Amino acid sequence: MKRDFLMVRDFSTEEIHEAFDIAIDMKKDRKKYSKALEGETLALIFEKPSLRTRTTFDVGIQQLGGYSLYLSPAEISLGKRESVYDVAKNLERMVQGIMIRTFGHNIVEDMAKYAKIPIINGLTDYSHPCQAMADFLTIKEVKGKLEGLKLCYVGDGNNVAHSLMDAGARLGVNVTIVCPRGFEPNMIAYNQAVEDAKLTGAKIEVTHDPFEGVKGADAVYTDVWASMGQESEAVERKRIFMPYQVNSKLMSSAKSDAIFMHCLPAHRGDEVTDEVIDAPNSVVFQEAENRLHAQKAIIYKLMK
User: Fold this and answer.
1) Quick check: is 268 catalytic?
2) 62 an active-site residue?
3) pLDDT per residue over 42-84, tens digit each?
4) What is the extent of the structural domain holding 259?
5) For residues 71 and 7, what is the distance between their CA atoms, to the nearest angstrom?
6) How many domains would you assign to the chain?
7) Active site (annotated) includes residue 128
8) Is residue 101 annotated as a catalytic residue, yes or no?
9) Of 29, 145, 177, 244, whose CB neighbour count within 10 A is largest?
10) Catalytic residue among 96, 131, 192, 245
11) How confident is the model at residue 227 (pLDDT cuts 50, 70, 90)?
């Protein structure tokens, strides 16, 4: 039976840990898996550009012995040039898996419903599960454990925030979302995370006080204030979010050994200062590298 990865909660707690174990093993010994998906092809559908998503999926499938097929917006234009159904039914006969980075979450849900091959969500406006997998893999590497830790996300209650809540709830990590009023996470995403957290004892909460939210955090995380498609709101968002900038003063409220995280790209001087992102406790590039290893593990689990 084919599996998809549209949200972190598509994997059980056990499956997430299994994926982390595979990712860590792959990171240690790349050649061990060099023929794992020999001859298999992963289609990469991009309606939103990305340095890390494009590179890590492209390199990842090749390191597993397979091939990638890049499909740009001009070639696909899902739902416009051709229906999602028709694209799914075509590609399922030509490739063995599909990664989609797009706007509406309904697009990846429809693709998963219609296609008989695995679908991986590379990003939608609602969810960014591959990023969260890399994030928690990084925390596990640095801290040596996950359960019982506190992750504080500071910024817009966006797709990244949703996936961090998902993953934290599954893994027993307490997640605090700190945001201005009116920029809270989607209530459906929040309620799902709270429900999942009952099984692991994790605490999922939202607050508007950055210093209170960051207090006692093992990891402090932020993201850009205006994502792709929100460029027209950038000036107003900067005014609203500036009190939520992650700087040395805010980081001082976290634990002394707290790490700093960012999904990148970063707008230095806005959501984070240079002194924080370039500090010794910043793991942003380790986090970026782990996109490769976490996604290889996801590809392996779904396509093997």
Assistant:
1) no
2) no
3) 999 999 989 999 999 999 999 999 999 999 988 887 777 889 9
4) 131-285
5) 22
6) 2
7) yes
8) yes
9) 177
10) 131
11) confident
